[in-house]
Amino acid sequence: MIRRFAVLAALVVVCAGVELVAGRGMSPGAVWDVLGGGGDATERHILLQLRLPRTLVALGAGACLAVAGLVLQSALRNPLAGPEVTGVTPGAVLGAVAATALGLAGWDSPLAVVLAACAGGCAGALLLWLLAGHGGGDPARTAVHGVLVSAVLGGLTAMVLLVEPGELGSVVQWLVGTTEGRVWEHWHLLWPWALAWGAAAWLLAGPLTLLRCGDDIALAAGLSAHRARTLALACAVALTAGAVAAVGALGFVGLLVPHLAVAVFGADLRRSLPGAALAGAAVVCGADAVAQLSSRLLAWALEAGRLALPVGALTACLGAALLLVVVRRAPGRTF
Question: What is the reported pTM?
């Protein structure tokens, strides 16, 4: 198990290193010169003020979404319960966009964006909870209601465009998900939020492991299933809201990465929760590096001056393809 954690941590470091050298404006040699204390003022600014905080935000957001997805799947005993299909992510996007359109939040007030995203995520989770029933144990029913809730919240987000067309850039950014333009302010806001709620989720690892076995077993062990599930959902909503407020909605990260973590580290959440955090960080950071390299290749092939491929588009496409492959290889499996 220690070897698995070490390999995954090394993979995170590799992904972070690749992302630091993947962007435009600097050669890999210039990156290493700056890391070694050299380079001119422009190169130091690009690396230390633009690329480094972007990399850290990608790592933190990926960890938040992966942990939130594993907490949701464990609390609801539903392998399809990810932030994307439980109303949490679209609700957080709606909250952030609505607050920006109303002038209550913006890029100059990131804390207000986090609070608005958290309120929207709570509203989305509550709406699904009311529609699917307090049990939430039927995966198919929860998934169907989650799609409906996400569609409704997405429609409300689109209505914001009709009221405030000037917010098109913000809406697209939060709907697709991107790390473009992230600076130290975003990181300084994200890391304490992620650390606090991630620690809270890890403290709930024991109760969540019991909930994965069913409410009857949890009650027999003396656990209040309703209270533990409520606390777990609060942690998942807060982690998702923090990630959405930082980078927008990154598709399929919170749905698929938890399955990878459980497959590698087992069903004991005391190990799989930290494993999910590392895996999510590696996935998002690696995807962002690939997105930057792809943007440079596409800009060269199309002879375009500037072309930016958002990381959210890449994670959505790759995640959907991976999910389709899994379903086709196991057509008789009940999800």
Answer: 0.88
Which residue, among 14, 54, 69, 67, has the nearest Cα to 311 in the 3D structure?
54
Buried b / exposed e along 181-210 (16+ C-beta atoms within 10 A): ebeeebbebbbebbeebbebbbebbebbbb
Q: 105 or 11, which is more confident?
A: 11
Cα–Cα distance, 152 to 149 (Å, whole number): 5
Mean pLDDT value across residues 130-146: 66
Identify the band that residue 166 occupies on the pLDDT scale cut at 50, 70 and 90: low
Nearest to 246 by CA among 194, 305, 315: 194
Q: What average pLDDT does range 310-331 have in this prediction?
A: 77
d(CA 43, CA 167): 32
Residues 6+ apart with CB under 8 A from 222: none
DSSP H helices, the chain, are 2-22, 28-35, 41-45, 52-76, 88-101, 110-132, 139-163, 168-176, 184-203, 205-212, 215-220, 225-247, 253-265, 269-302, 311-329
225, 218 Cβ separation under 8 angstroms:
yes
pLDDT for res 15: 94
Q: DSSP secondary structure string, 288-317?
A: HHHHHHHHHHHHHHHT-S-----HHHHHHH
Phi and psi based region of residue 9 (left: phi greater than 0; alpha: psi -120 to 50; beta: remaining): alpha
